[in-house]
Amino acid sequence: MPFSIRTGRARVAVAVAARAVALITVVGCSDGGGGGGDSATTSAAGPSGGGTQVTIDNFKFQPAALTVAPGAKITVVNEDTTTHTLTATKGATFDTGDLAPGRRATITAPSKAGDFPWDCTIHPFMKGTLTVR
After folding, report:
1. The model's pTM
2. Burial class of residue 99, CB neighbours in 10 A (0-12, 13-18, 19+)
3. Taking the C-alpha atoms of 96, 100, 105 and 109 in order, what is their torsion angle to the nearest 10 degrees?
4. What is the C-alpha separation between 15 and 88, in angstroms, rounded?
5. 84 and 105 fall within a common domain
6. Which residue has the higher pLDDT, 108 or 51?
7. pLDDT the model gives residue 51
8. Which domain holds residue 44?
């Protein structure tokens, strides 16, 4: 026999442990950060009605730099496999709150001109900037 019972049990144990780690990672990434923001509404992702959109996919914001008019509505769509936020890092002017995979939120740009950096509060390495002109 090419594999002993012991080796087979070890493989099963490794597979079970790997799945447990993956589950813990997903649950850990989806729990926390950005409570409901002042100017966000969420819904199931569906066709966009036009306007300005930021897509989250592969742990990146697309586009990561966005310029809009004061008070513009911005749709944020999470096409990734885990929960994210799009949250202003200065002044808490906008926040999607936790945005599960396949969900979308609409935020409103500040009424005042300026640069407003954002990040994902769950994954702070994900960054972008909203410029209001």
Report:
1. 0.66
2. buried
3. 30
4. 40
5. yes
6. 108
7. 67
8. 34-132
Edge to edge, the sheet with strand 87-88 lists 65-68, 127-132, 114-119, 87-88
Dump the DSSP string for 14-65.
Answer: HHHHHHHHHHHHHHHHHS-S--S-TT-EEEE-----SSEEEEEETTEEESSE
The whole-angstrom separation of Cα 40 and Cα 130 is 15
- Contact between 117 and 65 (Cβ < 8 Å): no
pLDDT tens for each residue of 99-131: 999 999 999 999 999 999 999 999 999 999 999
Instruction: Read off the pLDDT of each residue in 78-103 and give the average, rounded to a whole number.
Output: 95
How many separate domains does the chain show?
Answer: 2
- Closest alpha carbon to 86 in 114, 48, 52: 52
At which residue do the structure tokens 């900037």 appear?
129
Phi-psi region of 64 (alpha: psi -120 to 50; beta: other; left: phi over 0): alpha
Which tops the pLDDT comparison, 33 or 129? 129
- 20 and 42 both lie in a single domain: no
Neighbour count for residue 123 (Cβ, 10 Å): 17
* 3-state secondary structure (DSSP) of residue 12: helix
